Amino acid sequence: MQQLNDPSNWSRIPSLNDVTLKDVADQQLVHFLGMIQDMHNPELFLERYEVQHCVSSLTAVRLGKYWDIPRCGPDEVLVDDSVHNVNKERQSLCCISVPALNSWAKQPYGTNLNRSTACISKQPDRNEKGHPDESPSVNDAEPSPKRLCTDNRKSAANDLESNLPLPGPEAKTCLVKVYNNDEKLSLNDVIEVIGFLSKDPVMENVSNFEEMDEDGDVCNHVQQVPLPPRLHALCMRKRKHCNPLVDHAFCNTGEMLGLARTVRDDLHLVLSQMLLGDHLAADYLICHLISTVFQRSELLALGQFSLNLSGMLTTDGYSRHLYAVLEQLLTKSHFLPLTLDNLNKGTFIPRKDYEQNRLLSGLLQLSAQTHLVLDETCLQQGQLDSNGVHNIAALGALISQQKVDYDFKYYTLEFHTDVPVLVLSEGKSLLPSNVNVPLEFDAHSLQTKKEIFEAVGHFLQEPMLHKLRKYLTVMSHLQYSLPQDLEKVIQDDFVRLRRGTGSTTSASDLHLLLVLARLVSLSRGEQSLSKESWELACSMEKQRKHRVSQYIRH
User: Fold this and answer.
1) Is the distance from CB of 34 to CB of 191 less than 8 angstroms?
2) What is the rounded CA–CA span in Å between residue 26 and residue 19?
3) Is 404 exposed, middle or buried (0-12, 13-18, 19+ CB in 10 A)?
4) b (16+ CB within 10 A) / e for 205-240
5) Tens of pLDDT along 373-431?
6) Peptide bond connecting 463 to the previous residue in cis, omega within 30 degrees of 0
7) 218-230 pLDDT, tens per residue?
8) CB of 337 within 8 A of CB of 378?
9) Which residues of 283-300 are buried (b: 16+ CB within 10 A; e: fewer)?
10) Which of 99, 100, 242, 457 is disulfide-compatible with 165, CB 3.0–4.6 A?
11) SS3 breakdown of the chain: % helix, strand, coil, rounded to 5?
12) How many C-beta atoms surround the C-beta of residue 264 within 10 A?
């Protein structure tokens, strides 16, 4: 247990993310990285209980922690009124593979593991006096099916595994049992768990069993179906990010701060090439890629920076080429073509199924810092049905307020998100955005875009990819402050700006400028706003607004 206090040792334990269930043993110590998709009501379990052998009348006290159910052999019964029985509560979490986690970020845990380390399992139980429990027909016996009365057996594994925001062939589902957890957990948190795997053969293979009421009488027959693996947590931590190149506690980020401007220049080169010579759009895209919600105030999600790149090419799969580059750089991302079919038939909002007592996932149930790229260039003429209108409204709320209203049938429940949204459109998007940048392509780049794509592919090799991936994660999590000596400069510049533009410059423009200045500073490795970064942000906005006005005239 002491070795598990050091998370650097966790990668030596086999991961359920990377192996099949047949490759790991029941009660083996395993590793799992996942997102909390649903949170069940706390469940009671017997932390300690007494069993009695029916023939010899010998009794033994067993520990129930880290086990699904009390373990009784074929000739044993649970002593219901024993003074040794202790009831406790544990939390049950339905966890799934982290949605939209890009392939490069799926760290293959346990690949260099030797057999002795891989097969760590539970130690023998200790009885009341601290000695190993040696009661007859106990350790190797299977529990009686008649005692399975603690879980809801009607949930099928295949149903649970299909309950994913973004289904995929490698997606996994795991029920995590949490004991004595001090961290506040919420839906969509990403957690990393070390625990004992439960593949109880009775719970998985018995075709049916008799469910018993409080008096011990058989009340009905319940069809037994396979359950997903259960993981009884020994150690657990919330993950701030899923980038395997960056330390969880950001202890190894000092070097990246010193290299920030150089790496930013490399990233700007890549993005400006992919945007066919548009350097201003590349500047805004960098700011968008490191944006994150750092505070909430009333209806505002401070720090969000949704971006609409309009004037996109609609030929040669240009949007997908651009996304293919972003996918190589971002830890978590998803590309969604906004076709009528996707809008009308898609399930975007999670909803509660009261019959099965579980939360059915939707596409917008995503963990923080999952980048959503919406391709509006494929939206054809047609009619949105009621579901399509509902999905468009959900996207609008996500973009403008960084929230998703989950459907609980009789009411909606608001969940905050931190999902940066990039909208690619031919004209100005139908969806809201913080910033619209009309693209201006270089004429020569338009003629040589195929060669440009190939050149970018050659450029994005290690160690360059390593630096860019690390840069985006580190810069998005940097602490930031606004120096007092710059507040007067900002105020004077804003007054001057209002005088020059009349009433067209509002308080929302100042708010956008402050957000942009923060992102410009962070992109340059600055943790407090400098006058140079403030002036650069003002210059970017001046160029963008001029471009937007030109775009409207034409």
Assistant:
1) yes
2) 14
3) buried
4) eeeebbeeeeeeeeeeeeebeebbbbbbbeebeebe
5) 999 999 988 999 999 999 999 999 999 999 999 999 999 999 999 999 999 999 999 99
6) yes
7) 444 444 445 789 9
8) yes
9) bbbbbbbbbbbeeeeeee
10) 99
11) 35, 25, 40
12) 21
Alpha helices in 217-337 (DSSP H): 254-274, 279-289, 318-329
pLDDT, tens digit (0-9, with 9 covering 90-100), for 322-365: 999 999 999 999 999 999 999 999 999 999 999 989 999 999 99
Instruction: State the pTM of this model.
Output: 0.87
For residues 179 and 90, the answer to whether their CB atoms sit within 8 Å is: yes
User: Which residue carries 């940097």 as its tokens?
Assistant: 478
Q: Which amino acid is at 111?
A: T
Q: Return the amino acid letter for 530.
A: S
Residues facing 176 on adjacent strands: 93, 231
Residue 140, C-beta contacts closer than 8 angstroms, at least 6 positions apart: none
Angle at CA 548, nearest 5°, toward 543 and 550? Answer: 95
Residue 285's contacts (CB-CB under 8 Å, 6 or more residues apart) are 271, 275, 307, 309, 422
